[in-house]
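Handout, tutorial session.
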Amino acid sequence: MSVPILQLALQTERDVVQARQRAREVAAELGLDNQDQIRLATATSEIARNAFRYAGNGKVAFSLDLEQQRIEVEVSDSGAGIPNLEEVLEGRYRSMTGMGMGIIGTQRLMDHFEIETSERGTKVRMGKALPRFRDNWTERTARELKQKMRERVPSNPFEEIEQQNQELLKTLQELRTRQEELELLNRELEDTNRGVVALYAELDERADYLRRASELKTKFLSNVSHEFRTPLNSIISLARMLMDRLDGDLTGEQLKQIRYIESSARVLQDLVNDLLDLAKVEAGKVRMRPKRFEIHELFSALKGMLKPLLADNTSVSLIFDAADDPIPLRTDEGKVSQILRNLISNAIKFTPNGSVTVSATMLPEQEVEFRVADTGIGIAPEHHETIFKEFSQVDNPLQDKYRGTGLGLPLCRNLAKLLGGSIWLESEAGKGSTFFVRIPAIYVGEKLEADDAEMPPAPEYHRAPVLIVEDNAETARLLESHLRNSEFQAIIATNVAQAEIWTARHAPVAVIADVYLEEEVCWGFLERIRERWPDLVCIASSASDESAIARENGVEVFLQKPVERDALLRELRSRVSQTESRRILLVDDNEIARYILRDLLDQPWLNIREASNGTEAFSAIEQELPDAIILDILMPDMSGFDVLRKLRTASATERLPVLIYTSKDLSEAEQSELATLNASIIKKAEVSSRLSAKPFLEWAKSAGISPEAMAPEANG
């Protein structure tokens, strides 16, 4: 509900001043602080002045919105309206009279602002919220305020101007005070920033130290693990030989001792293997080998591997609860198997009697959740994170019988992260445990949405796209530089996912793939892409000679790294179909300019001849008519204009495409003459700054001499 408070007609400048005065008085009666009084008065004055200035009339109405608890001001007029209201409100309108700036400023001063305009006039509604600490205004108190404002005699306009000046001086003083405070704050921030910079430097130094320490630890574990493996394998092999009695019978005591030796060696071997796996994961040297498989196949393999553990603990039953519907996966089967193997073996060890149940469920998010649930001794909640720390174990009576390394669960967590998933557990002491492993059904290295990656660019129309699938940035840049300034455009994809998405939208003329990008994934990608384009040129590359493996996978061309430019271009040009060559005559007296242009236009479909002046140019034309001419303007014997005029007078060359390639600043008259003579223009300065063949190739296409322009479909 809105209660009217006061209304004023805008007929003279004095009425505008009075509107400001009355706005401040109403604001003061409503309990607004000094700043809000000034804001309301200034906003009212500005909009009222606009109404009087541009419409010559209007009125100002003050009212109290009891529901919203705010003072509202409505300024209306019967003028011609505001024709550029949208531009004004967006701050894009500029007027010599300043119209529009006042509206934007007023909008910022008020809590509520709306404006309606048409050919019949303009209406502006503004609102300012009332102080929350005051009692709510009611209809009765609003009417009392209305009566009070009606009885109040307006003060002299000059007093209002004096009041406005005082407000302005006070505002300027406040601004100066805030400026001084801001300068002080800036100095404090500078001191703080220096401290933060010093802290960051120290943190960087500490992080570098920790990184080096981690690298040393990883290197040490890796080296020690490798050194341990050879003697351990020898000990186990010799123990097996003795137990198999290859060199004669053993006494009962000797057989027991040999079994102890073998058992201890195998425990140590497990520790070494876990250490090596952890070192590989931390160093980022674990190679992922995604392949397609189904859950029931994985469970069948696990049953066979875990039979020896069940033989040692016959009071525990191992149950694999496979879903009725097949659950296909494309991820690293070995890593998934290793995680489940560790979890199941732990469950069997720490379950004196009962069961261990393994199950898998496909989730709506295209993720698979594995569960390994046992009825064993359980783990107290305070130890749920401890067991995932390296070399950490929870003390319990069964620990003496099944002494572990404390590395199995940390390794499981790292492998789960590597697969793009996670691992956690639910357990209570004495009530069994359930370990959960959730991983993507498709390995995240392959499943990559277009919005999640910086996708390779679309192919340029004048160059043949060559898709390079290479995760090594330096190698990718080298291959890209080999194809630069050639007829081929390098399209770089850092992984198979990007390559899959790109080839779903575009067709390359050739693919260059790193053999060890993702091993089987790489070969699978090449196989899939050849199914779509049987004639596609596929080139495999690697630092070692993998030509035999490439041929086994159907790839005929193999280039060993580092790939040489000539070898790469030779293979591409010999296998990618090309069109017949086009003859271009390059006429320029500057040998360096001809050299640069000849290098830029190094295209197999271009046959470039050169002439150093106009006389040589016409001699070359008499011998063989070119398909187009690139012509300099400033030459010693005759200018480019003279050459062009002479060309247009001969019937054989009157329609010959000519490109003016000059460093001269052409006047409007010269440009007009060149247009009349049907010649295109490219400035040498523009080309030298970018060293790109693109402007010339675009001209060739527009002139009808590029391979695309000469193709039958292009000619209709």
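The second record follows below. Compare its token runs with those of the first.
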Amino acid sequence: MPSKKASWFDNVNPNVFFSTVIIISVFLALVIFTPDAFNLLTNQLNQWITASFSWFYVLAVAIFLIALTCIALSKMGRIKLGPDHSEPEYKNSSWFAMLFTAGMGIGLMFFGVAEPVMHYVSPPTGTPETIQSAQQSMRITFFHWGLHAWAIYALVGLSLAYFSFRHNLPLKVRSGLYPIIGKRIYGPIGDGIDTFATIGTIFGIATTLGFGVTQISSGLNYLFDFENSIQTQVILIILVSALASFSVFLGLDKGIKRLSELNIILAVILLAFVFFASSSIYILQTTIQNIGQYVSNLFAMTFNLYAYQPTGWIGGWTIMYWAWWISWSPFVGMFIARVSRGRTIREFIVGVLLIPTGFTLVWMGFMGNAALFSILFENQGGLVAAVEKDSSVALFEFLNHLPFSGASSLLATVLVFLFFVTSADSGSLITDYLTAKTEHSPAWQRLFWTATIAVLSIILLIAGGLEALQSAVIMSALPFTFIMLLLCIGLIKALRLDVTKMQALQSARITPRAIHNPRSWQQRLSLIMHSPHSESEVKAYIEQDVRQAFENLKREFQRRQQDVSIVESDQGLLFKVNHHDEINFIYQVAVSKTLAPSFMLQDQNEDTQQSYIAEVFLREGGKNYNVMEWTQEDLLQDILEQYERHLYFLNVVRN
């Protein structure tokens, strides 16, 4: 019988795909046909969210950073994102380039000069346009673009990578909630979570296209006197989307990877030019001082809500940034998860938090301090005026005062353009992952989302709805913050179970192999699958078999001139070897209460579920293994193994 021919939409998840398309269409209709009412509604909602939930954003982001730090420093950090034998798919340089350009590349180009200048002119506290406000502006800029931003990305990325590569769940946001809702992630709840993540991703990318296209247009206007108009910006969006489509068509390894590596090379060239063309010593001194101030004030800034200075500044900046990063986290988190298979959790957290943050601080430090130097010591007041008028021209206005301004501005424009493409193509790739059944979707699905994002950006640009879209992105971050907290809880819950399993496998004791009277495999299975024992049965075993084994071993130790004693207790017997000035060896077998495995019980009454075991205790405490029904030879072998380990420990300490 001939096989059924595959349909063109076989790999589409209809619940996520079509609900996303419908919601975006409704959003566009509201922006186009009722722009004034929609803008008014979004502005009022944003004001309410800022006034009512600023504390929630600040606390949630702090929890994310603290949780990741604790995970990295704990035993959980040794777990791999994949099987224990897996290795990283990408070398470190390619990995860093891809996660960085997808996460913040275009934002650094837009705000590298603009934000420090804006904080210098309008600081949250203190007198504007002073040395103090310049220092404060850099500290705030570092704070907004530093560890907290990448902690948001890292939490989502770690959750998705862990559940996908370690537990073979789909590489989707829904998988992070598996420890909480179980198999319901495959139902309507999971579809709803992925739909919300997809919409946030599309809106975030479309808004970034709005930022990027205005900066490219400003660069072309500065370089070639192109008209900085809507028509020019629409043409740029079409061109960028076409290149992004080509990159998406090539795939992750050939397209996005190579573009990302090229971006990093060009970014380093531009950064080096600014460093050597401006006051190098000043840039080094101030950047190092800024990093020190950022690190030393990190805790205070994390929880600073400016509650005693309610000027509204925090809502326009810090809360806006936290919401922005959260709304982008499904996209960036899933992308860095996709390229991080095979790395340990500690390597992932350290890499995602510290490497991009380090580059970001250097970038902001060099660009921001060079711009402030030109204002403070070279009387370049025109830069302040240009930023206040149009922040998209800040970078080009700054480069205009350096040597070779034409070449550097051209390089900056190309760099913004390439960052623009990598954000668009990686965003389209992740959107396709979220709306498809598997990762191996046909090319049309990936190209469809590239075109959808481009059309969304163009319509909003023409309708003047980018501000409304930015407001929608910020609002969407509030409910997703709750989802991220659940992701955090589910991740820690699963990791603790994984660590427990890892420790159990390492420390588990198996029944010793009898030498003189070896057991058959049936006898060994019978010993393992024993029936529950009563307390009196365990005590009788300890008094008879365990005591006899201890006595035999005691005589042998004493024959070798060792000081050995057997001590009775209410719950068992203790065998002690006295090492005098060194740590003594203790091996105790005691009665311990436990719950019998349900699969071994014929009667499920509450009274029969209670069982007792003969547990081994060493000096450090219980070892959580049962020696009940072991032969005397089994016990002697186990005691000698533990004693040999103790002697090895003493030798390590002694040396």
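Points raised in discussion: The CA atoms of residues 55 and 616 lie 50 Å apart.
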